TrEMBL record, chains A, B:
Keywords: DNA-binding, Transcription, Transcription regulation. Residues 9-62 form the HTH lacI-type domain. InterPro entries: HTH_LacI, LacI/GalR-like_sensor, Lambda_DNA-bd_dom_sf, Peripla_BP_I. One of its GO terms (molecular function) is DNA-binding transcription factor activity. Coiled coil: none annotated. The keyword DNA-binding applies. It comes from Granulicella rosea. PROSITE patterns: HTH_LACI_1 (PS00356), HTH_LACI_2 (PS50932). PANTHER family: HTH-TYPE TRANSCRIPTIONAL REGULATOR GALS, LACI-RELATED TRANSCRIPTIONAL REPRESSOR. It holds the Pfam family Peripla_BP_3. This is Transcriptional regulator, LacI family. The lineage of its organism: Bacteria, Pseudomonadati, Acidobacteriota, Terriglobia, Terriglobales. Gene3D superfamilies: 3.40.50.2300, lambda repressor-like DNA-binding domains.
Amino acid sequence: MAIWKSQAPTLLDVARLADVSLKTASRVLNNARVNEDKVIRVKAAMERLGYRPNELARGLKAQRSAAIGMIVPNLSDPFTANAVNAVQEVARANGFVVILASSGGDVDVERSEIVSLVGRQIDGLIVAPADSRKDSFSDLLPNGVHAVTFDQQLRNADLDSVTVTNRRGTREATAHLLGHGLKRIVAIGARPHLYTCRERVAGYRAAMKAAGIEPRVCLVDHEGMLTPAWLKDQVFDLQQADAILSLNWVCTILSLRGLRELGKTAGRDVPMLSFDDFDLADMLTPALSVVKQPAEMLGREAATLLFERLKGGRVEPRTLVLPTSLILRESCGCRSLS
Amino acid sequence: MAIWKSQAPTLLDVARLADVSLKTASRVLNNARVNEDKVIRVKAAMERLGYRPNELARGLKAQRSAAIGMIVPNLSDPFTANAVNAVQEVARANGFVVILASSGGDVDVERSEIVSLVGRQIDGLIVAPADSRKDSFSDLLPNGVHAVTFDQQLRNADLDSVTVTNRRGTREATAHLLGHGLKRIVAIGARPHLYTCRERVAGYRAAMKAAGIEPRVCLVDHEGMLTPAWLKDQVFDLQQADAILSLNWVCTILSLRGLRELGKTAGRDVPMLSFDDFDLADMLTPALSVVKQPAEMLGREAATLLFERLKGGRVEPRTLVLPTSLILRESCGCRSLS
DNA sequence: TCGTCTTGAGACACCGTTGTCAAAAATTAC
DNA sequence: GTAATTTTTGACAACGGTGTCTCAAGACGA
């Protein structure tokens, strides 16, 4: 057991106890060549004092922190939570810690968080950008600090990034709904300034165009605007929806609730298909059909890309696109499936 | 705009550019008394160089890092994600960052993460312990680093902690089910070594005892063991359940799925009430009645407790117990409600 | 005009660790 | 046994800031 002094022991304390120089203790710590007997003495001293190297000091000297930053808009979204989980795992495996920050979807907060993280000498950064209209934030990153974006993609792609096949996802989803004979399919989305939203809308439009049907897109600036009244006016009265394609998780939740308040049941009265899977989507009645994103894999790949970068190697930015998958349950009209 | 040199600029660079001493630049940075004109020169130099103070160096000198650690078993649980969110917000407001780690519910991982975080000189720690049988981990914390536990509570409570009224929560829930005339209520839980599990079971037992009915508790060591077959054998065949009280989120999900595989619908065929609310619990059919935990508040209070500690002040450990609330929807048998 | 007080600014050491380099010790060769 | 080598070790200076102390300069009253 360790003997606690009033202050945490330093390497100097260890060295003194082991009766060697500071540097020798440091060498033992770093597995450099040191005589067997001194190694033993030093290790014993470390054990006895309960010595823990000060990573701050180590990082200061070595100009690195063995920490990466991660900025997400909102942890409550299960997609994000899963991605964060995966990143954290990969980081741990590489001996890094993750400093987590959430931007609340606000670019200014995002930028200020980046500045704060950079001040903490993070070695790398993983961001799910809050706004993809803006130019990349690489102007905030000092030389040598690399960043990877995921989920969203920035305009001037000078960064590694990982996204999913958003466009194909909604295209296939829309085509599927069309296959059920549905025509007045309304796409509901929020935050049209986001890359994902634009891409998903594009996929939807492509499928509608291919079918020769006029697309009906209803977007709100912020999810908060998606109320039952809005749903009634915009989606049903104005667009005469006979099916709904929800473009993200929050929209799905709000649509589901809104629909019920209007006395309709999603999937029964109004066929519905949503982007992003979540726990219990399969337990809704009818079970919700979705476009599933590989959230954990997204996080894992983003982290892997970052660590490859940190180890040196690649130069030009790389973009990874992971496949979405259409999970057909019941709400899209596929009642036949169990 | 900043001029990027190959290396990030240091305070010395600033001082040289402003033609003042290093210390004066430092004074400007810390708003100490400095002549007006030098302040201007230094600030201009900082602006020009895009100077950002090195928090590692600052922290090394000041023996603090303005970072707190947070360890949770699993981010995928919405309860946890919300708590983390709240902690992060409070930390940010106090100028701190959060280093997030997940233990995966493994005490050894938890302890090793704590050691790692301590090495990074965190100023405080917030933990949702992975095992509440074990003694507190305060042996791992150096002098001056305080910790707060939340959700779970450790045996030797030498730490601040925030929990909810687990016992009252299940007691009221059970009483409610009993009020519907249900008798063979089976409590389903996992990880019986956890404080929350024990407390929730205790609340359930108390209510059953008060009603003079034999309690029926079915616990599994790990959630993975909760399969449809187990549900059929243990819960229905053996205990002849006519109602289910699920003691946590994962059990709820698995019970819901298991029930369906057995051809039953939770809430219709088998009344059900669950601990922990989640998005879309209200959209299940029938809507799931739950005991709701104030997750964000839990996180916020935990962080607040920690920062109070950091500012000095209290000495003896404090335990905060936040109220759960019974949210009656339909699955408990309250069909009458909307 | 001199001494005292106030204010501002620089020199220096230090936080805990590691890179550099040269000295000391151990090993080998002759 | 001595010289040439190899290894092991320690002194010293960083890394990027801040606390302490001292000293210089300006303000003020007598």
